[in-house]
Amino acid sequence: MGCIQFVCSSDACLNGRDNNPGKEGVDQRSDAVVTRKPQNPDDYCPKHLGFNLYLPKTLTPKGYAKLKLMNISSNEYKTLVTNLNAKQTGWEDPDFPANESSIGDMKAIGQNIDWKRPQEIHPNARFFSDGPSRFDIKQGVLGDCWFLAVTASIASYPQLFDKVVPKNQELKGPDYVGAIRFRFWQFGQWVEVLIDDRLPVRSGSNELVFMHSSDPTEFWSALMEKAYAKLNGCYTNLSGGLQCEAMEDFTGGICLSIQLNPYQRPQDLIEQLKIYAQRCCLIGCNIYSRFPFLQKLDNGLISGHAYSLTGVHFVNYRGKTQWLMRIRNPWGDSHEWKGAWCDGAPEWSYISQQEKENILLSFNEDGEFWMSYEDFVTYFSNIEVCHLSLESLEYNQDFHGKRRLDETIFSGQWQRNVNAGGCISNRTTYWTNPQFRITVKDPDPDDDDNKCSILVGLMQKDIRKQFGPEFHSIGFMVYEIPDEQSTIMSQEQLSMKTPISKAQFRNTREVTAQFRGKPGAYVIIPSTFDPNIEAKFILRVYTQVANSEKIGIMQNHATLKIKLNDNPSTSFPFAK
């Protein structure tokens, strides 16, 4: 049975209190490690954690979380419904009003807008007409094809969709008051976004301005986009986003970006794709553009557009193995690939009927198409792979027989003149950054070289909504250490060490890196590029084989509450 580990820095170590690890599973006042199998509802109650990772009880492995935040939201929702029913009025969200402030840049929209409730747009308005489908969704005037692509992907998986969209929501009935609920993952916790059902339409009409369903009576997709717009400040903030961020916000997974140009593309990419096909992953792909607008190419593809990679299969083509990629355009229309292996292409005449059935081949103008691996890496620019873990799915849920990864979450922060040492170029202060240890005892079961694959993601708290568009430049280094080492790596030790993996410094919400290594102990050192930059962060580690109990935070912040040019003691018994 798998487990999730939460490794959390509490205020204890920052206030100079003793740093004595308590028993596993109790409230350890400093550098707590919580490792539990998902059994009892109280096992992941936030009281055990210095950093509150609120995970909805209804959304997670059976009983592994108790959600104070969501319970409050549910109670407030029930109170809201009761009060509005008594007044016989529809709810109007004061935090996301039906005016220009919720739209954002009105010039970018280029038209006048009215706001209407679904019943005012169509007399037979429903939340779903026939359940969610990746073929339901149509893009509006926003440049948020990246959001459409991810929405279409999770619509194909009820296990994921039901986490974001609570069940049993309708647009009619005695208890319907115009309030709709959605859930998104934000910086280590699931948050509930409550919106009213007023939607932007073209002035003087019933035509929805933004994302909508192909069925005019269905409104779940338009309402989901509104909730995500509220989460991000306004509608126009959704223009020009990244699939990887939406994937993580919809699943709680961790996303890895792979460049497809011949200079950066992994030599074993097809082998990696085969592995991803066996794991719980969502995969997006993009075509970069030199221009700030979409450009339709002669081959049917669209430059500057986001797509979903929905399948990786091989067929026997003229006696040879041919790898094929199944791609979906979130527009869901006739804008499809026109080259080899497109719908109705002559290549398909050489494929047996059995193989066609095995890969569920169909030719429809639905935005989904096939292309060869060779053409795929030629015309597409990058792949974004979102790995799902126990955080992303119910523990007892089956995801088409695919494997989930084990997850360890560290929380921390960089503090000025304490542990914000900057990147490795700052040689006298770099070692003061937080140091996190992981130990993987066994190789991956499917690795022929007896190595283990480790995926690391460093995420900084999103400050864009409060303080503007800039992120800090962040990155991390990974080092091998002896199994018996139980102290932080000193300045001298680090000067003689070469990292075995690293994430390049970027001013993005998250940086990730994946590496293969032999089973053993590793230290991860996250940092900002410049020293003395303050920020909160979470560090997530995904492995096929569960991390051992020998895991913890190798940094005694109490000893580092000094000037950075001092030399504190390096003796610290890390948490077990």
UniProtKB/TrEMBL annotation:
<protein>
    <recommendedName>
        <fullName>Calpain catalytic domain-containing protein</fullName>
    </recommendedName>
</protein>
<dbReference type="InterPro" id="IPR038765">
    <property type="entry name" value="Papain-like_cys_pep_sf"/>
</dbReference>
<feature type="domain" description="Calpain catalytic">
    <location>
        <begin position="90"/>
        <end position="389"/>
    </location>
</feature>
<dbReference type="GO" id="GO:0006508">
    <property type="term" value="P:proteolysis"/>
</dbReference>
<comment type="similarity">
    <text>Belongs to the peptidase C2 family.</text>
</comment>
<dbReference type="InterPro" id="IPR033883">
    <property type="entry name" value="C2_III"/>
</dbReference>
<dbReference type="InterPro" id="IPR022684">
    <property type="entry name" value="Calpain_cysteine_protease"/>
</dbReference>
<dbReference type="InterPro" id="IPR022683">
    <property type="entry name" value="Calpain_III"/>
</dbReference>
<dbReference type="GO" id="GO:0005737">
    <property type="term" value="C:cytoplasm"/>
</dbReference>
<dbReference type="Pfam" id="PF00648">
    <property type="entry name" value="Peptidase_C2"/>
</dbReference>
<dbReference type="Pfam" id="PF01067">
    <property type="entry name" value="Calpain_III"/>
</dbReference>
<dbReference type="InterPro" id="IPR022682">
    <property type="entry name" value="Calpain_domain_III"/>
</dbReference>
<feature type="active site">
    <location>
        <position position="145"/>
    </location>
</feature>
<dbReference type="GO" id="GO:0004198">
    <property type="term" value="F:calcium-dependent cysteine-type endopeptidase activity"/>
</dbReference>
<dbReference type="InterPro" id="IPR000169">
    <property type="entry name" value="Pept_cys_AS"/>
</dbReference>
<keyword id="KW-0378">Hydrolase</keyword>
<keyword id="KW-0788">Thiol protease</keyword>
<keyword id="KW-0645">Protease</keyword>
<dbReference type="InterPro" id="IPR036213">
    <property type="entry name" value="Calpain_III_sf"/>
</dbReference>
<dbReference type="InterPro" id="IPR001300">
    <property type="entry name" value="Peptidase_C2_calpain_cat"/>
</dbReference>
<feature type="active site">
    <location>
        <position position="305"/>
    </location>
</feature>
<feature type="active site">
    <location>
        <position position="329"/>
    </location>
</feature>
